[in-house]
Backbone:
């Protein structure tokens, strides 16, 4: 009895201890309750009286005290009340990207003495920045950019001795930059701060000489697009740690200080659109420069600087309208990284000599409105050369149209900034893949790039996950490569959050949560897009976030058709439906043998009847399963029909589905044949929605089937619709050879490529062709078919056709062979749901798949 009493006492004590640990400090609860009453769109689980114990979303506690509030991108509306000052243990306050948060910052924010992160980016706060913000001795990140703050920069910010990041950009701040004197502090005292981001304000006056010193550790000074006057302070040349300097779009004047050349770590220099005079600056010491813009200044007439040809890291040189004269040295065009050269509206003269060994990165040479009189052609520069409004173009020398070729905008940002996915995963963000697309440059020389983020194996992101990613991006936890400048990130609202554990659950359940037990649940595997707009370039980066809900047909489910949007034989997708495992069991009578209708390379296929009485085929994974084979063979004409049907189905996915879809696993096992041998594309287990922009690419983990996998996708992790085209080209080669693509280190693409001889009959491929084709008779269109297959498997996606082009080519081959391009049923690549005939795609075992042997196989998989 005594032992039981002791145990009961210990259990009661443990219970009391746990309850005490979970209880929220009454003062902190009062503050959160005031937020709850003043804000709209708060998280739905903000109920009850114990935010710490009941797990209010966005609230992180330690020892019953609130120590972090992360509510980024929640759609909050209201004002930040003065009650915030009572959260005396608060270390992180992140309310960024809630445009509905308005009004001034309360002075009581200065009472948060333990605050290390104050992140209010992209809200609608207004009024002056309170001077009390300088009373936060442990503050490391101060991000107030992209609001409507006005008035002066508080001098008290100079007292934040722990400050690493100071971002006040994109507001309405005015006045001069405060520096210290005998009575006040100033920003010159921030010797440990590495970021001064003050761009896009209305700051004026001279940039104080006292602002900079050799003691400072600054790496980014961003003062662009303000109203600064006077000269560049010579003290700026003392900050040897500086990597990015933006003073463009001001009214600065005078000479550029000569000691600016001492900043040997600067990789980006922006001095354009000012009133600088004097000699063209000597920047020969900046040997790591990759971006330089000195355009639109009134420098004295100067010969073209020879030091430009020594800057081996230079990618972009912008020196428009700077009074440069003389000929251009051929060595300039040999710089290995040079991509863009803009020297228009200068006094350059003589004959242009690009040389024969120019950089293969060079895509644009813009020399408009100069005095160039000739052109020495050596190596046939293939990209865009602009010589308009030069004497050479005015008839005295002759036309120059041959020098003007279409401009290529250069590599897609995802080719050079391929780390977003890795960075998300490194910081344990729930991201499976990302898509970079739609790059465009804005008026401030920032490049905007759309980034779409896919959650990992769940229906949508939770509020805490959204807040975590917003915090990562706003406080620069996410680090782009060093070749890119700083970025800023703007988010819109996300409105499809995953369900949270209800705080109204029984107290017994909450007790088990307190002691550490976990409750599992079944999550439907449908992905939701989040749009996040990032900017990346080898210069300053601007990011914009936009959230959208677009279902991704990548998991098991039936696709419904919208007949009102159908066009010809291609119906439009309404969107995929996701089924629970119970629904699938009910539809197949628990996967009974009576409903077993075949098997595929991935597993068995069952006949199913949904609650709506719709018949479907349901594939169930079965390790080590193999597909059947039969005695039916496909002749040449039938193989052309199969190729056309599959091409039409894939073309539909790329061009007409809503959203367009990249299949990602095109292979013969995933192409189905009905009883009339019409082909249908199947199995969307690895599919991805296509990015909005036609230049878009998806950066994602490589998945697919070896032998069919696009090598460009495999090497770069960048998925495009041309990856499907490559896989389809391999399928065409299988139709020709009846060989598996990859076997015993023999690759079908390489074998065909090596053996091809266009001067010989059948391109010299007779030994590789499938004997079942009947090689004693001519195969009409064979050579054209081979050409098409090899076009599809070109090394780079840009060299491959689109699937609509593939369809046209196959139709042309079939007409050449005298074969009708009409399918034997109304379903060309997709099942017909409007036909009045008695035909049904699941009737009498009439759906088949085919494999590399070309055999008709009476097994069925779910149709497209």
Residues:
């Amino acid at each position: 009895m005594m032992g039981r009493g002791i145990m009961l006492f210990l259990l009661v004590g443990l219970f009391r201890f746990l309850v005490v640990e979970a209880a929220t400090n009454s003062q902190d609860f009062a503050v959160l309750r005031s937020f709850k009453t003043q804000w709209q769109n708060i998280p739905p689980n903000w109920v009850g009286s114990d935010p710490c114990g009941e797990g209010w979303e966005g609230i992180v506690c330690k020892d019953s005290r609130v120590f972090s509030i992360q509510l980024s991108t929640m759609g909050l509306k209201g004002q930040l009340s003065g009650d915030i000052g009572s959260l005396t243990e608060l270390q992180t306050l992140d309310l960024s990207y809630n445009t509905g948060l308005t009004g001034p910052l309360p002075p009581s924010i200065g009472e948060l003495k333990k605050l290390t992160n104050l992140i209010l980016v992209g809200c609608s706060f207004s009024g002056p920045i309170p001077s009390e913000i300088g009373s936060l001795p442990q503050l490391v990140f101060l991000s107030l950019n992209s609001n409507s703050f006005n008035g002066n920069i508080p001098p008290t910010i100079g007292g934040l001795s722990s400050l690493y990041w100071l971002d006040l950009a994109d507001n309405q701040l005015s006045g001069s930059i405060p520096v210290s004197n005998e009575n006040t502090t100033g920003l010159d005292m921030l010797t440990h701060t590495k970021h001064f981001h003050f761009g896009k304000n209305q700051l004026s006056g001279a940039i104080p000489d006292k602002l900079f010193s050799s003691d400072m550790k600054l790496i980014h000074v961003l003062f662009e697009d303000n109203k600064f006057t006077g000269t560049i302070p010579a003290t700026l040349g003392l900050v040897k740690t500086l990597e990015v300097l933006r003073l463009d779009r001001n009214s600065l004047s005078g000479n550029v200080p000569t000691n600016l050349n001492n900043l040997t770590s600067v990789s980006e220099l922006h001095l354009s659109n000012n009133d600088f005079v004097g000699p063209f600056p000597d920047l020969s010491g900046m040997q790591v420069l990759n971006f330089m813009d000195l355009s639109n200044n009134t420098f004295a007439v100067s010969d073209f600087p020879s030091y430009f040809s020594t800057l081996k890291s230079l990618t972009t040189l912008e020196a428009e309208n700077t009074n440069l004269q003389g000929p251009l040295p051929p060595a300039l065009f040999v710089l290995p990284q040079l991509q863009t050269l803009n020297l228009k509206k200068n006094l350059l003269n003589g004959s242009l000599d690009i040389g024969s060994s120019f950089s293969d990165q060079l895509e644009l040479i813009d020399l408009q409105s100069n005095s160039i009189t000739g052109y020495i052609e050596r190596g046939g520069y293939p990209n865009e050369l602009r010589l308009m409004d030069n004497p050479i173009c005015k008839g005295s020398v002759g036309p120059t149209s041959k020098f003007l070729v279409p401009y290529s905008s250069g590599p897609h940002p995802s080719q050079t900034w391929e780390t977003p996915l890795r960075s998300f995963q490194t910081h344990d963000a729930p991201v499976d893949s990302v898509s970079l697309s739609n790059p465009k440059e804005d008026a401030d020389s920032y490049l905007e790039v759309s980034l779409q983020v896919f959650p990992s194996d769940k229906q949508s992101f939770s509020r805490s996950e959204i807040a975590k990613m917003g915090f990562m991006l706003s406080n620069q936890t996410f680090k782009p490569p060093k070749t890119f400048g700083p970025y800023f990130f703007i988010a819109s609202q996300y409105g499809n959050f995953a369900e949270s554990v209800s705080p109204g659950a029984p107290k017994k359940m909450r007790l088990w949560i307190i002691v550490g037990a976990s409750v599992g649940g079944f999550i439907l595997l449908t992905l939701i897009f989040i749009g996040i707009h990032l900017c990346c370039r080898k210069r300053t980066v601007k990011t914009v976030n936009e959230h959208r809900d677009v279902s991704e047909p990548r998991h098991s489910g039936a696709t419904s058709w919208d007949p009102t949007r159908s066009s010809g034989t291609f119906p439009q997708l309404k969107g995929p439906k996701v089924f629970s495992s119970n629904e699938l069991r009910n539809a197949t009578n628990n996967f009974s043998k009576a409903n077993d209708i075949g098997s595929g390379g991935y597993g068995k296929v069952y006949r199913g009847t949904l609650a709506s009485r719709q018949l479907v085929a349901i594939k169930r994974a079965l390790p080590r399963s193999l597909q059947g084979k039969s005695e039916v063979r496909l002749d040449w004409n039938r193989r052309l029909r199969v190729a056309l049907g599959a091409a039409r189905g894939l073309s539909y996915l790329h061009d007409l589905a809503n959203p367009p879809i990249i299949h990602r696993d095109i292979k013969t096992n995933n192409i189905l044949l009905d009883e009339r041998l019409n082909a249908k594309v199947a199995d969307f287990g690895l599919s991805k929605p296509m990015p909005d922009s036609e230049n878009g690419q998806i950066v994602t983990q490589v998945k697919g089937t070896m032998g069919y996998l696009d090598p460009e996708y495999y090497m770069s992790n960048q998925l495009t619709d041309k990856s499907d085209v490559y896989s389809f080209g391999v399928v065409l080669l299988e139709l020709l050879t009846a060989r598996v693509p990859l076997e015993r280190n023999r690759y079908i693409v390489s074998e065909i490529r090596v053996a091809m001889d266009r001067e010989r009959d059948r391109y010299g491929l007779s030994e590789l062709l499938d004997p079942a084709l009947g090689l004693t008779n001519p195969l009409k269109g064979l050579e054209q078919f081979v050409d098409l297959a090899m076009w599809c498997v070109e090394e780079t996606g840009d060299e491959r056709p689109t699937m609509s082009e593939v369809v046209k080519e196959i139709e042309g081959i079939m007409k050449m062979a005298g074969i009708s391009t009409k399918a034997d049923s109304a379903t060309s690549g997709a099942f017909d749901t409007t036909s009045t005939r008695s035909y049904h795609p699941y009737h009498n075992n009439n759906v088949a798949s085919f494999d590399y042997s070309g055999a008709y196989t009476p097994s069925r998989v779910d149709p497209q």
